C-alpha cells in the first residue's frame, strides 16, 4: 500500500501518524510542506474532500498569532487556500493519502479502521 503523509516533522500529530505506520509495518512517503510547500491542486482536493473549515487549522498557534484582519478575510475555500498556500503551518496535520482512502488529523481508531 502506498501511503503519503503530508505535514511538518516536528508536529506531534505527524509524529504519532509516522509511529503508527512504522509499528504496523506500513511503508509511507513523507512530504514536508514546510520545506517543499504544498500545491494549489492538493489544497483544492483536500478542501473539496474534507471541507476547507477542517483543512484550515484554527486551533493552532499559527492561526491564533495571525493578524485579525487576515483571519477576517478567510471566508471561503478560495481565501482559505490562499492563506494555507502562503502559510503552510495553518494546514491541519497530518493529511494522509492512500489507496484505501484519505484522512486528516490523527485518530488511532480511525487509522486502525482504514489501514489495518
Automatic annotation (TrEMBL):
Q: Which Gene3D superfamilies match?
A: Glutaredoxin
InterPro entries, per database record: Arsenate_reductase-like, Thioredoxin-like_sf, Tscrpt_reg_Spx/MgsR
SUPFAM superfamilies in the cross-refs: Thioredoxin-like
Tell me the domain of life: Bacteria
- Provide the family line: Belongs to the ArsC family.
Query: Which NCBIfam families does this UniProt record tie to the protein?
Result: arsC_related (TIGR01617)
The molecule here is called Spx/MgsR family RNA polymerase-binding regulatory protein
What organism, scientifically named, is this protein from? Pedobacter segetis
